[in-house]
Design goal:
Helix content is 50%, strand content 12%. Helix 14 packs across helix 15, helix 15 packs across helix 16 and helix 18 packs across helix 23. The strands form 6 sheets. The protein has a 5-stranded parallel β-sheet, sandwiched between helices. It has a 4-stranded mixed β-sheet with strand order 10-11-12-13. It is α/β, with parallel strands linked by helices. It folds into 4 domains: 222 residues, Rossmann fold, CATH 3.40.50.300; 101 residues, no CATH class; 114 residues, Helicase, Ruva Protein, domain 3 (Orthogonal Bundle), CATH 1.10.8.60; 185 residues, Methane Monooxygenase Hydroxylase, Chain G, domain 1 (Up-down Bundle), CATH 1.20.58.
């Protein structure tokens, strides 16, 4: 009864630790509450009942770089008192066999068969299938998959003492054959010969007059202990064992040690909690977009749509099916940070700086919201997580601290607080005493991204404005989608501007192929209309590639052309495809592109006023947001009704059409339907 009460008390205590850890992590990590909840739920049985576990618990954490995967696991291990039983493997580093052996040996020596936490970081680099689809093999990769399977695997005990012990055995045998006699580990006959042979190459070692000479010298005894720690409590056990042996007994003992060293040892991680951490570009398609001007909220929304099926499909590009199965089904997906989360992270770091300064200098800092906005504008690259933010905070805030305390010393200031605020590219620091400013100074802050974003009001911005508005106007008029933002200058290298739009539905129908193609070609069509055919500029390359790829996929893969078939170039491995030997499909692609360009030009001509007004605005201002675009549409668009814009694409046609057909079907009297002659088509209406 007492034991049961003690167990229950221990269980309640561990549950309390989990609950406290869960709440604490949410205060330290912003924007990942759902991830924390799922993680804590996944580890609860392992933490509360490790004795019931006979194979590792595997938890996969997937996300963009810099979202806190490694940091979360590190902090979790610390919070539940597993820091000394936490082993981190960076699979992105250049792991050689010896460094890995060393880490695994630590587990064997200190935690074999006990609950531990393992982190397999940068897991995407453990791939067993390369970019060309060929299998690759790595030593550590084999260990990883054995670990994930049942938690038990074998590694060699081989170490750098093996050759040393092997040579010793050879020498001792030679001495015994040449008259050296050993009793209880000591040389008792032919000592001079023994010393000469054993000290060969070791000048100054040993003396013939020594009273007792050990058959196995001390430095070899230490090597024996290091090589076979499992067999001895300390090096003194080795000494004790050798002190009881004859010459031949010593050689037999050393042969046993050598055999033991060369035998494999079983690492038992069956009670481990294994975190698999990785970035999957195949699932996070936005990961390669480094544009700091794309809304973080857009990437955040895209990331929320990633599901376990997409993760497994992305893994299939890198790993074999049986390996993916070993990862299990606990896949926790990190969202990209929203703009709100980024700003909370900035405020949290500013708070941490305040606490450190207050502790060291006994004076509080305070930050105006303008400082947060400056750091956000200069430091946020939506797909790169928090790392760029922290370096920006260092540049904006930490580099000013030396000047601040120098000012206090020089001017003998006794301020009660220090206040930071930003205006344009200047930071002003105010020293306050009882809420009154007693001193201040301003410093110019170099804002590299902001300089790139500034309106240049030159030809390039004018061209970009016309080009991007062309895309935007066609998106509204042909697809009924309102762009999120249009930019005529951007901080992204190699890009002058962009339009950000969200397709509201999750499919592509045949009737929208032509409008989509026209939107791709909208920039080119707009430049031709405004500047004339001779003044059309380069810069449409990406648009043309995307348009051609899109219509090629529609006709060659999706069956949207005149022939509903899969079409491929002729090759021995494409014998199950149709081959476009007469270039009929290529001719069809050209026709589609010509029709799309005609549609784009016709539509833009109808909306000439809207196009010119929006382009004119963007030639002076770097961007137009959603609300501003809508106001231009209402004022200048031809034959436009705001209610035509699609906000919800989940119920546009297909569900309603299906229901309508079913209702029509039910209205036919059952007695008039003859099963033998029953003909059914969604394209026909039933009549009595």
């Amino acid at each position: 009864m007492v034991k049961r009460q003690s167990t229950s008390k221990q269980l309640l205590h561990k549950k309390q630790i989990l609950d406290q850890t869960q709440e604490q992590l949410k205060t330290e990590f912003i924007g990942i509450d759902k991830v924390i909840n799922e993680t804590m739920d996944a580890i609860s049985s392992w933490y509360l009942f490790p004795e019931l576990q006979d194979k590792p618990v595997v938890i996969n954490l997937w996300g963009l770089t810099g979202v806190g995967k490694s940091s979360l696991v590190n902090r979790l291990a610390e919070s539940i008192c597993f820091s000394e039983k936490y082993y981190h493997f960076d699979l992105g580093a250049k792991n050689d066999e010896w460094s890995i052996q060393g880490k695994l040996s630590k587990i064997y020596e200190h935690a074999n068969g006990f609950p531990i936490i393992l982190a397999l970081d940068e897991f995407q680099h453990a791939r067993t299938i390369d970019e060309a689809g060929k299998e690759v093999d790595k030593y550590f990769s084999r260990v990883v998959w054995e670990l994930l399977d049942n938690g038990k695997f074998q590694i060699t005990r081989y170490n750098y003492h093996v050759s040393e012990i092997y040579d010793l055995i050879y020498k001792l045998r030679h001495m015994l054959l040449n008259g050296v006699v050993v009793q209880k580990g000591k040389v008792v006959r032919n000592k001079n010969f023994f010393l000469k042979e054993i000290n060969e190459g070791r000048s100054g070692r040993g003396r013939s007059g020594a009273a007792e000479i050990q058959f196995v010298p001390e430095h070899f005894q230490a090597a024996i202990y290091e090589s076979a720690r499992e067999k001895f409590k300390s090096v003194y056990d080795v000494k004790e064992k050798l002190s009881q042996l004859s010459g031949n007994g010593t050689v037999d003992f050393l042969q046993y040690i050598l055999q033991f060293i060369n035998s494999p040892k079983t690492i038992d991680c069956s009670k481990a909690l294994v975190f698999v951490l990785g970035n999957l570009d195949e699932a996070y398609r936005m990961s390669n977009d480094f544009n700091p001007d794309i809304f973080a909220d857009e990437f955040h929304e895209q990331s929320l749509k990633i599901n376990i099926s997409q993760i497994k499909r992305a893994l299939k590009v890198r790993f074999r099916s049986e390996q993916i199965a070993r990862l299990g089904n606990t896949h926790i997906i990190y969202p990209a940070f929203s703009s709100d989360s980024f700003k909370k992270i900035i405020r949290l770091e500013l708070f941490n700086i305040t606490e450190r300064v207050k502790k060291l200098k006994k004076i509080p800092l305070a930050f105006d919201e303008s400082i947060v906005e400056m750091i956000y504008g200069e430091g946020v690259f939506p797909t790169q997580g928090t790392r760029p933010i922290f370096t920006t905070i260092h540049q904006v805030i930490n580099t000013k601290l030396g000047r601040i305390f120098t000012e206090m010393f020089l001017h003998k200031l006794h301020a009660s607080s220090i206040y930071f605020r930003a205006e344009k590219d200047f930071i002003t620091v105010e020293f306050l005493l009882n809420d009154k400013i007693i001193h201040s100074f301003s410093v110019k802050q170099i804002l590299n991204l902001e300089a790139l974003r500034k309106s240049k009001r030159d030809d390039v911005q004018a061209i970009t404005a016309v080009h991007e508005v062309g895309h935007a106007v066609l998106a509204v008029m042909l697809l009924r989608i309102l762009p999120e933002i249009i930019c005529s200058t951007t901080a992204e290298y190699g890009t002058n501007g962009f339009v950000s739009t969200k397709i509201k539905w999750k499919y592509i129908s045949k009737k929208e192929i032509l409008p989509r193609l026209a939107v791709f070609l909208g920039g080119l069509a707009a430049e031709k209309m405004v500047f004339g055919d001779e003044h059309v500029t380069t810069g449409c390359e990406d648009d043309l590639v995307r348009a051609t790829e899109f219509i090629s996929e529609m006709l060659k893969e999706s069956g949207m052309g005149e022939v509903a078939a899969a079409i491929h170039v002729k090759d021995c491995i494409t014998r199950h495809f149709l081959h476009d030997e007469k270039n009929e499909v290529n001719d069809e692609i050209e026709k589609w592109l010509i029709k799309a360009r005609t549609l784009a030009e016709k539509t833009l001509l109808e909306q000439e006023t809207l196009l010119l007004k929006m382009a004119n605005h963007l030639s002076d201002h770097r961007s137009m947001t959603k609300d501003l675009i809508k106001s231009f549409l209402v004022k200048y668009a031809y034959n436009f009704d705001e209610s035509d814009l699609i906000e919800n694409g989940d119920d546009l046609y297909y569900r309603r059409e299906l229901k309508r057909k079913v209702v029509a079907l039910e209205e036919i009297p059952v007695r008039e339907i003859e099963i033998d002659n029953f003909e059914f088509s969604l394209n026909k209406s039933f009549s009595q």
